[in-house]
TrEMBL record:
<dbReference type="GO" id="GO:0005615">
    <property type="term" value="C:extracellular space"/>
</dbReference>
<protein>
    <submittedName>
        <fullName>Uncaracterized surface protein containing fasciclin (FAS1) repeats</fullName>
    </submittedName>
</protein>
<feature type="signal peptide">
    <location>
        <begin position="1"/>
        <end position="24"/>
    </location>
</feature>
<feature type="domain" description="FAS1">
    <location>
        <begin position="207"/>
        <end position="351"/>
    </location>
</feature>
<dbReference type="InterPro" id="IPR050904">
    <property type="entry name" value="Adhesion/Biosynth-related"/>
</dbReference>
<dbReference type="Pfam" id="PF02469">
    <property type="entry name" value="Fasciclin"/>
</dbReference>
<feature type="domain" description="FAS1">
    <location>
        <begin position="29"/>
        <end position="173"/>
    </location>
</feature>
<dbReference type="InterPro" id="IPR036378">
    <property type="entry name" value="FAS1_dom_sf"/>
</dbReference>
<dbReference type="InterPro" id="IPR000782">
    <property type="entry name" value="FAS1_domain"/>
</dbReference>
<keyword id="KW-0732">Signal</keyword>
Length: 354
């Protein structure tokens, strides 16, 4: 961190890279928390700081540089995420997210811009959370890329308090080791499959049913065995509209040794049915529709499964990820395997209901 500060030299102006309305403010009679509490645009941030028990810390001597998301920035998070983060059981995650917005020391806008310049256009800043984000100039504005690869814009700068400075940003920053999807698994927050348009007047002669397609694919031998043991073959060989997130044989191989053998035993049929049903959505969702739904839902699309539990779809590094009720993530590795009664997307890990 010391080397980070050594590279920063003040510039006379930040006007070339922030909006013209962003004016520096000297509020040195108040600390950072008091400044935020007095500004209606930061009410969600203040509530989060209090829920995370960080108000005392951020009211301390410091100095701190806070990249502060506005209420609109929090509102842009997936539906239900803020409420989930404010729950006591998610306090540690909330603390990690909030401290990811804080850099030790008082860095004025000019310092940041000069740091970008001396770092070759891309400044890596260490946060109080222990992880870094990258700061750069782009399209005549200062941008911050977080650990998830999302980019936020600095919209106002140099709000100076007694223990540091605030720069305003238009998006909440998320570190790489926080999985928002894991917090969005509760029933009732899901955007169900009814939001995906179902095709009409589709012929279902079932010469090419989901059951037949899976049986004819060498990658799904374990899945086909499990469907038979669960008594689900008839369902996937009958008329309907399903989307199946199908674990490959390699996905089943990732499970602890003996798991599959135990699950296919008659006495475990009900448990196996629950796991398999958790991979099925009662609507046909193509890869294009799924990615559009993710984008429309601010990066995290929740949908109900036949098991009456939710899954969360997101995109990371250009790949669709599915997060189960335990917070574990699977990657979609093959899409749009068409069948007369639905569609199959192959995944690389078995999804487990809560």
């Amino acid at each position: 961190m010391k080397s980070f500060f050594l590279t920063l030299l003040a510039l006379a102006s930040f006007s070339l890279v922030v909006p013209s309305y962003a004016q520096a403010q000297d509020m040195s009679d108040k600390n950072i928390v008091e400044i935020a509490a007095a500004n209606g645009d930061f009410s969600t941030l203040v509530a989060a700081v209090k829920a995370a028990d960080l108000a005392t810390t951020l009211s301390g001597e410091g100095p701190f540089t806070v990249f502060a998301p506005t209420n609109d920035a929090f509102a842009d998070l997936p539906e239900g995420l803020v409420a989930a983060l404010l729950k006591p059981e998610n306090k540690a995650t909330l603390q990690k997210i909030l401290t990811y917005h804080v850099v030790s020391g008082k860095l004025m806008a000019g310092d940041v811009v000069e740091g970008i310049t001396t770092s070759g256009g891309n400044l890596s800043a260490a946060t109080v959370a222990g992880s870094n984000f990258n700061v750069m100039t782009m399209d005549d504005a200062v941008k911050i890329k977080d650990g998830q690869g999302a980019v936020t814009t600095v919209t106002a700068t140099d709000i100076t308090g007694s223990n540091g400075v605030i720069h305003v940003i238009d998006r909440v920053l998320l570190p790489a080791d926080v999985n928002p999807a894991a917090l969005l698994k509760e029933k009732g927050t899901a955007m169900t499959e009814s939001r995906v348009k179902k095709p009409t007047n589709r012929s279902q002669n079932l010469d090419n049913s989901i059951a037949k397609v899976a049986s004819g694919n060498d990658n799904f031998e374990t899945l086909v065995t499990a469907l038979g043991a669960a008594g689900f073959v008839d369902m996937f060989d009958s008329p309907g509209e399903y989307t199946v997130f199908a674990p490959t044989d390699a996905a089943f191989d990732k499970l602890p040794e003996g798991t599959v053998g135990t699950l296919v035993k008659p006495e475990n049929k009900e448990k196996l049915q629950g796991i398999l049903a958790y991979h099925v959505v009662p609507a046909r969702i193509t890869a294009t529709q799924l990615m559009a739904a993710i984008e429309k839902s601010n990066g995290y699309y929740l949908f109900n499964t036949v098991a009456n539990q939710t899954l969360v779809a997101s995109i990371k590094d250009g790949k669709v990820k599915i997060t189960d009720g335990n917070g574990n993530t699977s990657t979609v590795i093959m899409t749009d395997v068409d069948a007369d009664n639905g569609i199959i997307h192959a995944i690389d890990s078995v999804l487990m209901p809560k």
